[in-house]
Amino acid sequence: MNPLKARISLSAYRHNLKSVQKIVGPKVHILPVIKANAYGHGVLPLARESLKQGVPMLGLGTLEEGLELRRAKIAAPILLLDGIFKQQAKSAVKYHLTPMVTALDTAKELNRLGRRENRKVSVHLKFDTGMNRLGFTLSEAENALKEISSMKNIFVEGIMTHMASSSDASSPQNELQLRRFEAVLSLAKDAGLNPTWIHAANSGAIINFKESHYTMVRPGISLYGYPNAKVKKAVFKAVMTLTSKLISIKNVNAGEGIGYDATYVTPRRKRVGVVFGGYEDGVKRALSNRGSALVGGTLVPIVGNVCMDNFMIDLSRAAFARVGDEVTLISPLHAAISAEKWAELCGTISYEILTGIGNRVERVAK
Ligand SMILES: *Cc1c(COP(=O)(O)O)cnc(C)c1O
Which atom of ligand 1 is nearest to the CA of 100? Predict the structure, then answer.
C-alpha cells in the first residue's frame, strides 16, 4: 500500500559501470562506492549487481554499513571509506572489513588484533594531499609509512587519497594533489610497500584526469547517473525513478491559500491534487512553489509549501487526473524533474537530493 516508490534500474546501473570501465580502460579496476545506502538507492541490490559484474571490492562508508552487508551474506572484500574508530577495530577484524586507516593508533590496534589471530589485517592507508579532511598529512607520511610497514600483522593492500576539486577540470588543485600523491607513493616504495590498489579518483577525476586512475577508481555519483563533470549525455543514465500517488483531489475557489502559510493563493478556481510524500521523504521544502511533478505525461507545478508528508500540485493542465494516479517526482526521462534539476532549485547538489530520499520510500530494484 506504500505509494512512495523508488524504482532502481539495474540495467542503467550496469550501463554506468560499463561506461566507467570504458573511460578508465580494461586494466583499471572499479570500486563502486555504495555508501549511504548506495546514495539513497538501496544498498543490497546494487552491491549484488556490482559483484555480478566482477568488481573486486565494494566501497562502503561506516563499519555499520559493512556489517549490514555481512549480515546479508555478502562475503566480498569491503573497504570502509569513512575509516573506523579505534573501538570498532575488533568488529572490523572479526568480520573481515577492510578499514581505511588515517591514524597510527588505529593501525597499532589492528596490528595487535591481527597478532592475536595470527594473521595479517588488510588496510588501505589514506593520505591527505589537499582536501584537508581525513588522512595522514604530507609531514606525517614518511614516519607513518615506516611504522606501519614494520607492523607484522598489517597488510597494506592499498594506498589512497581523495581529490577535492576534480569536478572542475581547470582547477590547479588537481595537479597539485596528484603531484603530492606521487611523492607519497615514492615514500611508500622507499618503505618497501608495493600495494595492489592505488586509488585517487572519484567520478570527477575519472572523467577529467586520466593520470588519477592508477590501479583502481572509486566512482559514486556517476554510477547513479549524475556524473558531476562534463560528459556526453548518453554516457551515464539516471538509475532512480521516484513515484508516488495522488491521494486526494479538490476544487478550490479563487483567492484561497494552499497549504501552510498560504504561500500560494489561487488566482482563479483550480483543481488541486494532494500527493503523498513530503520533506521527510526527501521532497525538499525548497521545492515549494518551484518544483514540478509529472501526472500522466503532463508536467504540473507544485503549489504551496511542501509539507512533511504531502505536497500539492496544480491540476489545471491535467483534467484527466484521478485519485490513485501515479505521480512521478524524479525521472531519468525528463530534465525538468531530474535529481539535478531538484538540486538546482534547492541550491544544492544531486548527491544531497539522492541521499535525502527517506526511509519510508520503498526501493524496488529490477
Ligand atoms: C564518496 C566517495 C567517493 C565517490 O565520489 P563521487 O564523487 O560520488 O564519485 C570516492 N571516494 C571516497 C573516499 C568517497 O568517500
Answer: 13
